[in-house]
Design brief:
5-stranded antiparallel beta sheet; 57% helix; 12 strands; 5-stranded mixed beta sheet
């Protein structure tokens, strides 16, 4: 349950409790009134009994006594008398000379005095308590209670704004401002978050400038090297230099993509791609000759399988896994097996010296550069929503990607 839901539940409960208390108070008031009415009748009951037995004083005297006690004789037709006699009473009291029973019809109280001589019906003439004052206090209590509720809800409104800002931050928008001019606890949290965002934004900007400067400085000698290599005579050295410069240029491009992805500046381009095409492009990124691919890699990829993914990022992750598998296998051989949703890269060799979680940080596990490759794969799989796990069985390492097949 949300915080607002809990507050609403508390105030609804408080409303019910207050209503219950006022209802109980009203019932107590009515019971007290009925009890007083019975006490008044007990004072005039002897005269009613005497009147029933034909021993009462003059009719005017009896009427004056009843009027003083707050009662008035009531003449009822037989149908009304029978109806009242069979209706449930609200109070019954046995007296030495008979039984007093109180009935209620609307706001009128009717009292029946039953003796062996017969029944006498009286009507209460004193005003029945009305709950107007109590209802007024109840209304004022409700207004105060729900006024407090609205005040609290309005005080919590900045939490919704803060949640929306944090959601935007989650999606990479660090330019959002959470600053609030108020001085309560919510504003303190929002302002502290805003200060942290500004520092993070400055750090990211500095890192981007640093990386861009490094890549620019590296691209310049690579371009010069390619240019000079073009003037060399045809031969083995020229091909090696050309492959080396292409490799460096490709790595710089990969670093640029990774930097964009980690700073949430990369826009995913999701589409359906054949699995064979993804694997072929990953091998092209490794700059392997066709004969080297056939010698070092065994592929089992059905031609009908397609994958819903981002072409550039998926092939980059696959390229890093294949590169690691070939580099860190004693026989420099790996196997790529593709099913509907599972891509498995296997190679013979020793197991990872640490759990896979330790390799999900850049250079988190130092072992000849393997840590950076797995860090790149892990970062890409998180962006694409691809499952990534590792297993080892009978001398075989297994890296598994759970992709979205169709």
């Amino acid at each position: 349950m949300t915080l607002l839901g809990k507050i609403r539940a508390i105030f609804v409960t408080a409303t019910l409790v207050i209503g219950g208390l006022f209802y109980v108070a009203y019932q107590i008031q009515m019971e007290h009134f009925e009890s007083q009415m019975l006490d008044r009748f007990m004072q005039v009951a002897p005269f009613c009994h005497m009147q029933s037995a034909g021993q009462a004083p003059a009719a005017d005297g009896t009427s004056n006594l009843l009027s003083t006690g707050g009662f008035k004789p009531l003449l009822l037709n037989p149908d009304t008398t029978n109806d009242l006699a069979h209706s449930p009473p609200i109070l019954t009291h046995k007296m030495p000379r008979g039984t007093a029973t109180i009935f209620r019809r609307g706001e009128t109280y009717i009292l029946r005095f039953h003796t062996t001589m017969g029944d006498q019906w009286l009507r209460n003439t004193q005003p029945t308590p009305r709950p107007l004052v109590m209802l007024l206090w109840y209304a004022l209590a409700l207004v105060a209670l729900w006024g407090l509720y609205l005040w609290l809800v309005r005080s919590l409104q900045p939490l919704k704004t803060l949640h929306e800002a944090v959601t935007r931050i989650k999606h990479g928008d660090l330019s959002v401002s959470t600053h609030q001019p108020r001085r309560d606890e919510i504003a303190q949290v929002a302002n502290t978050l805003d200060e942290a965002l500004r520092k993070i934004e400055a750090l990211i900007h500095s890192r981007q400038l640093f990386l861009h400067a490094i890549m620019h400085e590296l691209k310049t000698p690579i371009a010069k090297g390619k240019l000079l290599n073009a003037f060399l005579e045809e031969g083995e050295n020229k091909e090696r230099y050309e492959a080396l410069f292409d490799r460096l240029d490709l790595l710089l491009g990969e670093f640029a993509k990774i930097e964009q992805m980690l700073t949430a500046n990369y826009t995913l381009r999701l589409a359906e791609y054949p699995a064979v095409e993804l694997a072929d492009h990953a091998l092209e990124l490794m700059l392997l000759a066709p004969e080297e691919i056939d010698r070092h890699l065994t592929r089992h990829i059905p031609t009908e399988i397609t994958v819903h993914t981002d072409f550039q990022l998926c092939t980059l992750a696959l390229k890093n896994l294949l590169d690691n598998a070939l580099t860190h296998s004693p026989d420099h051989h790996a196997t790529l097996t593709v099913t509907d949703t599972i891509w498995t890269i296997r190679n013979h060799g020793d197991p990872l010296p640490q759990p896979l979680e330790a390799w999900k940080e850049p250079f988190g596990a130092s072992s000849g550069g393997l840590g950076l490759g797995l860090y790149i794969v892990h970062s890409i799989t998180e962006v694409l929503g691809i499952g990534f796990r590792y297993g080892y069985e009978e001398g075989v390492n297994m890296f598994v990607l759970e992709v979205h097949g169709v």
